Amino acid sequence: MLRFLVLVLLLANAGYYAWSQGLLQAWGLAPAQQAEPQRLQQQIQPEALRIVGAKAPPPVAAPASGTEAAESPASAEPASTASVPVAAAPSAGECLQAGVFDEEQADALRRAAAALPQGSWSLQRTTIAGRWMVYMGRFADGDALAKKRAELREIGVPFDRPNNASLEPGLSLGRFSTEDAAQRGLSNLAAKGVRTARVVQERPDAPGFMLRLPAVDEALRAQVEALRPALAGKTLRPCV
User: How far is residue 171 from each of residues 144, 199, 223, 230, measured CA to CA in Å?
Assistant: First the structure.
């Protein structure tokens, strides 16, 4: 039975092959032929193709005057699509400031800054804050001053001389920007055994000046270096 089935399959495959190849066309057994001559007519003929160069655009005439070009900007078309480099905008420079300067320092700074370009600097008025001090004195003589220094060293309290001739001979036990801060400093010293100190104003509020350079570029920076001797040890820093 198995041999019979194998024989049938072989005959069937041979018959299909003969039919698909048109071997049985004489007996009227063959697949339908598909012919589309219109497709052949639509094929591109490679022997008829040729390469031609791109046609150069006509030259664009320059406008007769600047006024004419300004009046019709939309009518002119670029001759090519190449990008045109655009110059970067120049840097505005860095804003720098220094201070605070007192009247005498500001006068010296004005003279030094006179060599800078006009409008490149200014001195702006401000206030030099007063300063408060925890103070001991005035002592009767040098011996009393030396005795008090020895006592302070013994209890570990630092001191120095006051920067005020009217308070000599005396001792400064700390300087503060406000009177309240000085009073707190005095309380801390009292806890360590300091009994005769008091709070005094070492320096009252005073008019002051801030140096401002709004636009320091590379060209101006070299000239600004010449100002350093007149800055009284103060540093140029970015504006706030």
Answer: 11, 12, 43, 31
